[in-house]
Amino acid sequence: MPGHTLELSEGGEPKIERYWELGADGDCDSHSREYYVNRYCELPVGAVSSHLMSDVPVGVFLSGGLDSSAMAALTAKVRGDQIQTFSVGYGEEAFGELAYAREVADHIQRTTMKSG
């Protein structure tokens, strides 16, 4: 089971112990849907902001997948200027997401140029 260990004695008797459990220490009060939507948007922006304390150009590895695309877009938004994106392609296009990475990079550039 997740968060458990299994130990077998020399006689083959199993001993299962929990070593970790996800705590529910968070805010248990019920909030509006709008609160949770706003909070969900604020948390990633805060996480990205805390990692962008730099006076040099910033680059983001952009695979074209959902996670790297979101991080690249948030990085550009937080920085307020254009960012460098880097991607790797494969010889066989069927296995790569390079086309998606290009599309995201182009979108981020257009969006940053309009707001900047």
Short description:
With 116 residues, this protein is an alpha+beta fold. Helix content is 43%, strand content 14%. The chain has one domain (4-115).
Topology pattern, helix = H, strand = E: EEHEHEH
Number of helices: 3
Quaternary: single chain
Strand order of the largest sheet: 1-2
Mean residue pLDDT: 87
Please report the distance between the alpha carbons of the first and last residues.
Answer: 51 Å
Strand residue percentage:
5-15%
Estimated radius of gyration: 22 Å
Number of domains: 1
Largest sheet geometry: 2 strands, antiparallel
Count all strands and give the number: 4
Please state the overall shape, judged from the principal axes of the Cα atoms.
extended
Task: Walk me through what this model shows.
- The protein has 116 residues and is α+β, with helices and mostly antiparallel strands.
- It has one domain (4-115).
- The protein is 43% helix and 14% strand.
- It contains 3 helices and 4 strands.
- It has helices at 33-50, 66-79, 98-115, and strands at 4-8, 14-18, 59-61, 84-86.
- It has a two-stranded antiparallel sheet with strand order 1-2. Strands 3-4 form a two-stranded parallel sheet.
- Strand 1 (4-8) and strand 2 form a beta hairpin.
- Helix 2 (66-79) packs parallel to helix 3.
- The radius of gyration is 22 Å and the shape is extended.
- The termini are far apart.
